[in-house]
Amino acid sequence: MKKDDVFEFFRRLAEENPSPETELEFGNHYQLLVAVVLSAQATDVGVNKATRKLFAEVKSPQDMLELGEEGLKEHIKSIGLFNSKASNVIALSEMLLAEHGGKVPEDRDALVELPGVGRKTANVVMNCAFGAETFAVDTHIFRVSNRTGLAKGKTPLAVEKKLEKVVPQPFRLGAHHWLILHGRYVCKARKPECWRCQVAELCSYKSKNLSED
DNA sequence: CTCCCGATAT
DNA sequence: ATATCAGGAG
């Protein structure tokens, strides 16, 4: 995608949604970290449904260890991959207490050390909690970047590196949210709604769905 | 690469 | 019935 088109791409998304935020619900950094770990291969709606009750009683790593792994499983059993997620969240909470004073670290190297936290989750926490200009390439951003021609790459990391290069200011802080929301509601995996897409004319997607069913 | 793994939309 | 959902670990 040409440089001017990239600017126009984000200008249009920003015009519609001036201050995009995550749709995951949380009250502090620790809850944000847990919510993002739970959101792997699951919908935000499904995660929020479970964390609403969980976070009413669990607000810190101490609270989580008091609840225990089996107690946590009861809360998150409606989410996919709940066995490994419960195990990771307990281990992650222990590590926060043992090595970080119970607080969520700000740097990627420390975040990725935590069980269940990979590069994408680390980038989300850095952006949402600490205002870092990171690009968390999840399934939506990977699809939208490749499909539109904004940043093509064979792996999430390759797409992230390209986004680092092509996304201009003043859009770098919000870019990952604009892309994810666009992917969730317009540029969807199954049935992309190109007829109401704000950036369709800037897009390289060949088989556009330009008619409304 | 495979496994994990329930809810929802199509 | 099956694809998809804010992926990560072995």
UniProtKB/TrEMBL annotation:
Catalytic activity: 2'-deoxyribonucleotide-(2'-deoxyribose 5'-phosphate)-2'-deoxyribonucleotide-DNA = a 3'-end 2'-deoxyribonucleotide-(2,3-dehydro-2,3-deoxyribose 5'-phosphate)-DNA + a 5'-end 5'-phospho-2'-deoxyribonucleoside-DNA + H(+)
Single GO biological process annotation from the record: base-excision repair, AP site formation
CDD domains: ENDO3c
Name of a matching Pfam family: HHH
Enzyme Commission number(s) from the entry: 4.2.99.18
SMART domains xrefs: ENDO3c (SM00478), FES (SM00525)
InterPro entries reported in the protein's UniProt record: DNA_glycosylase, Endonuclease-III-like_CS2, Endonuclease3_FeS-loop_motif, HhH-GPD_domain, HhH_base_excis_C, HhH_motif, Nth
Annotated binding of [4Fe-4S] cluster, by residue: C187, C194, C197, C203
Role played: DNA repair enzyme that has both DNA N-glycosylase activity and AP-lyase activity. The DNA N-glycosylase activity releases various damaged pyrimidines from DNA by cleaving the N-glycosidic bond, leaving an AP (apurinic/apyrimidinic) site. The AP-lyase activity cleaves the phosphodiester bond 3' to the AP site by a beta-elimination, leaving a 3'-terminal unsaturated sugar and a product with a terminal 5'-phosphate.
Entry protein name: Endonuclease III
Organism per entry: Novosphingobium marinum
